[in-house]
Amino acid sequence: MYRTTIEDAVFPNCPIRNILARLCDKWSLLVIYTLDKAGKEAVRFKELQREIPDISQKMLTVTLRTLEDDGYVTRTVYPEVPPRVEYALTARAYTLLPHVNALIAWALENRDAIMEDRRKACKK
Prior knowledge:
This protein is mostly helical. The chain has a single domain, classed as Arc Repressor Mutant, subunit A (Orthogonal Bundle), CATH 1.10.10.10. 58% of the residues lie in helices and 11% in strands. The protein contains five helices and three strands. Helix 2 crosses helix 5 (91-123). The longest helix is centred in the C-terminal third of the chain and has 33 residues, at 91-123. The protein is globular and about 60 Å long. GO terms for molecular function: DNA binding. Residues 14-115 form the HTH hxlR-type domain. This is Transcriptional regulator, HxlR family. Keywords: DNA-binding, Transcription, Transcription regulation.
């Protein structure tokens, strides 16, 4: 999938579908949350990978590129040997964080009830 061109076939100008398609994949919000946990400091690729151990190197790379393309993450390359690359959240990402944190709080508050409903649904 070429991640920089997501457009809804039926509603190509719908901003909510377009933005949610990019942000609500398996990894994007988790990467943003992980970068936020680091505070205002930039984070190196391997540090991110350690913090999210079940993400593959390729998927982390694709996710970071997508977040950078959409203006949520900055990527800084330092001309050293070996090259050092750091990632940090942008001002746009910081405006998104209250909504992400509210979603996390909601999920924590409702997790047990949701899991119970899932168990009941499996027994049907």
